[in-house]
Specification:
The chain is α/β, with parallel strands linked by helices. It has one domain (about 1-185, about 215-240): 3-Layer(aba) Sandwich (Rossmann fold), CATH 3.40.50. The chain is built from nine helices and seven strands. It has helices at about 10-25, 40-50, 70-80, 105-130, 150-170, 195, 200-210, 215-230, 250-255; strands spanning about 1-5, 30-35, 55-60, 85-90, 135-140, 180-185, 240. The protein has a seven-stranded parallel β-sheet with strand order 3-2-1-4-5-6-7, sandwiched between helices. Strand 5 (about 135-140), helix 5 and strand 6 form a beta-alpha-beta unit. The protein is globular. It starts with a strand and ends in an 8-residue tail after the last helix. The model has no long low-confidence stretch (mean pLDDT about 95).
């Protein structure tokens, strides 16, 4: 499995890299991963960790808000691995703030990284993925389907990403390139650590989730690795929500009481 994984230095991206290496071994394949992030030190540590487990892992440090970088990433994968089987577009940022307070620069950077980068990566990678009958998996968010207080630009960027992936699926599917999206719900990463490391806040989050847990990066990685794998050959253009059922809570939230309590 030759793959690009963006936003790979930690959290969901790191979990994806470890999972994809593990699954490649299970299928008897060699794992060749180009790991992309803007943070060099944790990225280099992950590369070393994967190499110690037999993975041909390489690091690429770059800022995906730069429109020249996606093509450079794909070129590096081609030069290093000779081709590409999967593109995992996981990198993303959150710009918090009311839409009235947000600057053009904040809004544009959110769109550039969360949405445009996936298009540019996919566009650059298309010939390689076409040759391998490979796939694209983008990481969205339940905020892409549910408006979220103080995350106006983020929600808009993820909604656009979900539709972009659907468009890719019909534009590029006939040429043999699948495109799918995974939309995580609440997941304990470095970005959310301040919340979920607090016992009370974590307990509150668990109580509001039908599955009664807070997601872990490994839960998202399992879904992403599956969609990137040959096992998902007939899955194209889906947005797989991995949130323990949280996004189905509209009627629960608007009603009195808790229907799960006995």
């Amino acid at each position: 499995m030759r793959a690009i994984i963006t936003g790979a230095a930690g959290g969901i991206g790191k979990a994806i890299a470890l999972r994809m290496h593990q699954e490649a071994g299970t299928r008897g394949e060699k794992s060749q991963l180009l790991l992309v992030d803007i943070a060099r030190e944790p990225l280099d540590k992950l590369v070393d960790e994967l190499k110690n487990h037999g993975c041909d892992a390489r690091a690429f440090v770059g800022d995906l808000s730069d429109p020249e970088v996606p093509a450079q990433i794909v070129a590096a994968a081609k030069d290093t691995f000779g081709g590409l089987d999967a593109l995992i577009s996981n990198a993303g940022i959150i710009a918090r703030g009311d839409l009235l307070e947000m600057t053009v620069e904040q809004f544009d950077r959110t769109i550039d990284i969360n949405t445009r980068a996936t298009w540019l990566l996919g566009k650059a990678a298309f010939p390689l993925l076409q040759a391998s009958k490979g796939s694209i998996v983008a990481v969205g968010s339940i905020s892409g389907e549910q408006a979220t207080p103080s995350l106006g630009a983020y929600s808009a960027s993820k909604a656009a990403l979900i539709m972009l992936v659907k468009q890719m699926s019909i534009d590029w599917g006939p040429q043999g390139v699948r495109a799918n999206c995974v939309s995580p719900g609440s997941t304990h990463t470095a970005m959310t650590d301040a919340r979920y490391s607090d016992p009370k806040l974590r307990a509150d989050a668990e109580a509001r989730n039908p599955a009664r847990i807070v997601g872990q990066p490994e839960h998202q990685a399992a879904a992403i690795a599956f969609l990137a794998s040959p096992d998902a050959v007939y899955i194209n253009g889906v947005n797989l929500v991995v949130d323990g059922g949280m996004s189905n809570n509209l009627m629960v939230a608007s009603a009195l009481g808790d229907p799960w309590k006995k």
